[in-house]
Amino acid sequence: MNSYRNNLLEKLKEAPLTKDLPKDVLAEIILPHLKPISWAEHSLVMDVSETKKRFFLIASGRVSVEAQHPQNGRSVSLFLLGPGEGHNLVTLLDGQPHEVLAESLDEVEAVHAPLTLWRQWLNDYPPMRQAAMRCAARRLRELAEFNEDLALHDTTTRLAHLLLLHLENEPTVDGAPPRLQGLSHGDIARLIGSTRVVITRLIGRFRREGILHAGNGVLRIADLERLLQKAERRFHIHTPTNRPK
């Protein structure tokens, strides 16, 4: 039990939401209230009936947070969460249920406590409140960039951007691997609003062009310069030469 407690304490010291709190606060106030929970790979987890009452912090594994069309069942991934990240951050901050699906992409371990208690901690500890605002701002920025990608960029550019984002120098907690590793082509497709068939074709093209090494679920950038060229339309800023007056 002590080893589990010590391991969880180390994870809290690295998690974005709790890393700025003093160690004694984490150990004596936060940790005793956190209850563990786990799910098998590819399970629906943390549904709205749970997230409207409790806040979940992921300890290990990855979770895809998705929106799904009510009629045709087509889904798109809004966020890819990993160790140290909280799931229902919106509900924590505004108190309103968030109607999304969450699927475990690996075996996932998490801890949770009542939302009322988390909100009390936000009030009592300004560093945690400020961290929650930073986490919310980052997710808002990710959604804005995702919408921009869907509206303005083709699938090749979106995939190149995703690979650069998650395979190059991605910060992780507790030595976890970059978040794209081991994902199916269907999982990757949902991250950029595409389909499995298209992603399989594009990854095959990137391999033939010497841009990627891919095999057994592992992706590795082989030619960073050429991948950057694929993604350059995503980062290029156009300056209009003629503007209406």
Task: Tell me briefly what this model is.
The protein has 2 domains: 2-140, Sandwich (Jelly Rolls), CATH 2.60.120.10; 153-235, Arc Repressor Mutant, subunit A (Orthogonal Bundle), CATH 1.10.10.10. 46% of the residues lie in helices and 18% in strands.
Number of domains: 2
> Could you state the order of secondary-structure elements as H and E?
HHEHEEEHEEHHHHHEEH
Report the uncertain regions. 171-176, 236-245
CATH A-level architecture of the largest domain: Sandwich
CATH class of the largest domain: Mainly Beta
Question: CATH homologous superfamily of the largest domain?
Answer: Jelly Rolls
End-to-end separation: 70 Å
Largest sheet: 3 strands, antiparallel
Give the helix level as a range of percent: 40-55%
Outline type? globular
Oligomerization state: single chain
Q: What strand line-up does the widest sheet have?
A: 1-6-2
Proportion of residues in extended strands:
15-25%
- Tell me the total number of β-strands: 8
> CATH topology of the largest domain, what is it called?
Jelly Rolls
What class would the helix/strand composition place it in? alpha+beta
